[in-house]
Write a structure and sequence with these properties.
By secondary structure, this protein is α/β, with parallel strands linked by helices. It has helices at about 5-10, 25-40, 45, 65-75, 95-100, 100-105, 115-120, 135, 140-145, 150-155, 165-170, 190-200, 225-235; strands at about 60, 80-85, 175-180, 205-210.
Length: about 240
Amino acid sequence: MTRGIRKYNYALVSADYRLAPQVGVQDIFEDVQDCIAFIRTELAKHTGPDVLDTQRLAVSGSSAGGYLSLLAGLYINPKPKVILCIYPVTDPLGNFFTTSQLHNLGTARTDSASITEFLDPQSDAITNTAPGDESNRNKMYNYMLEKANLGALLRIGSGDRFRIAKSIFQYGLPPTYIVHPDGDQDVGIDQSDEVVGVMVGLNMEVGYKRVHGLSHFFDLDEHVQLEDMYRFLLKHL
């Protein structure tokens, strides 16, 4: 979203949130709620009058951030005007995240000793990777894919509240745009397919770009512009 700031003249707020497994998804979502409440009730006090229209709110994110964006679309009231997601996680209890992805990881194996401090639920909660431990903290995701334990790391029970597609009928989503590459081995494209399918079936407004042959983080290439996403944003914001 940073590339469109000057071109489309919107304000970008980048929110920190506490990381699992020291906290669960409920705690993480509370951080999202706090951020949106701050934007809607406090942010204008810091920018001055007539600078921002904080009621015209889009929520966007990629991967785990896309998951939190969809949760905001389900459970924040009043709902954001539009949700924009790039290769989002949508169901930590879905097939992709409950099946070991060793076949995608190849020979890679995570030495659990190298991430012991990050697995400890009693460790201090953090919102960012601390300087000097990037390589080990970043091993957590591959470890999760190996062990197929995302739901446990996020402390998700058997209920459907944190399973996006299963909650849409009851809670609804605002207009939502999703882009997901079909070569993604970090978040299976079935995660997005399911949500889009439910939204289409319920006649909700959804845009979907299913990119062929690319992988996770494809959008970091400076040549990727995602113009369709920005058009969807402007239409609804």
